[in-house]
Amino acid sequence: MKARVTNINIEEFQFESRIHREAVPVDPVFEKTAEFNHRFGRGKMRDCLFQDMHFMEMDLFLEQETEVTFVSELPALELQFNLEGSYFHPDNKVNTEPLPTQQGTHNILFFPPIQDRFVQCMGARKNKVLEIHLTQKYFTSLLERNFPQAADFLRKMENMEFAGMHSHHLSITGPMTLLINDILNCNKTGTLRKLYFEARILELLMLQLEQIEGLERPVNQLSRYDVERLQEAKWIVENNMEHPYSIPQLATKVGINEFKLKKGFKQLFKNTVFGYIFDIRMEQARELLLESNKSITEIADIIGYKNAHHFSTAFKRKYGMLPSKMRTG
User: Fold this and answer.
1) Which residues are bridge partners to 133 per DSSP?
2) pLDDT per residue over 110-138, tens digit each?
3) How many angstroms separate the CA atoms of 236 and 247, rounded?
4) Is 304 left (phi over 0), alpha (psi -120 to 50) or beta?
5) Domain check: are 241 and 106 in the same one?
6) Which residue, 6, 47, 185, 220, shows the most beta carbons closer than 10 Å to its own?
7) What is the pTM assigned to this prediction?
8) Helix, strand or coil for residue 27?
């Protein structure tokens, strides 16, 4: 895939990932990174290819409003996760409406072979996206006719038309965030790395489809303003784990009342604010147990527990075993 980056003054350059998404890798996982450093921005595009799957992590910092154009000779079935920044697809439309992409959102998209697919990115901020590509044959084999919500999507894909599994991007939930972090920070090698990626990507797809399926049930609709404020609250929670905000502080920070924060957060992210903080801390503890030599007391302290016994009790409530048992297997 090639990317052409153009600032508002029409100055441009290109950088390219040479991985062919439908190639069969010789190694269990084939990886390549392309970087650029320019007057109006800098960035990195990391590709990982394995059988039936490919993912690309794009991490950009752009000094000013910028157009990023992608060129692909192949169709793309894409699980898209917008982790930081906001951008706009002027030409990609679902139900005749352009598809804007906000921070902390995801969708399942299909792009026919294209010479120019461009997005407009806001300037003076970081833009980070994870795109996971599955082959059409593999994706279709997973769903077939067993997921009726995908019928229109599969029809458009077969006709080589742009398609979105949902008419607008949905909020990335806490469990999705943990899986994404696993994928981006995996330190396994060889076949174990491939299996690790595959397992988490399939679980991510399951969570996406589960969320889409759940939207068919009647719920109290949140306004666009409320959704944006709640997504901001989620970002603040994730980036202030050492000193978490109280509910009143968080509500004031994002500009909504406490009732709407608590109810809306649970509706949008399928977890309470403090439940989300708890899950992130426990996942961090699990990773430290499995991947470091730190003592249980040290790990408890790192994730914010002053008492190792209280930490062990909380960990068992989350994972069904004591920290010491997880470490020893």
Assistant:
1) 54, 78
2) 988 865 555 556 555 778 899 999 988 89
3) 12
4) left
5) no
6) 47
7) 0.69
8) coil
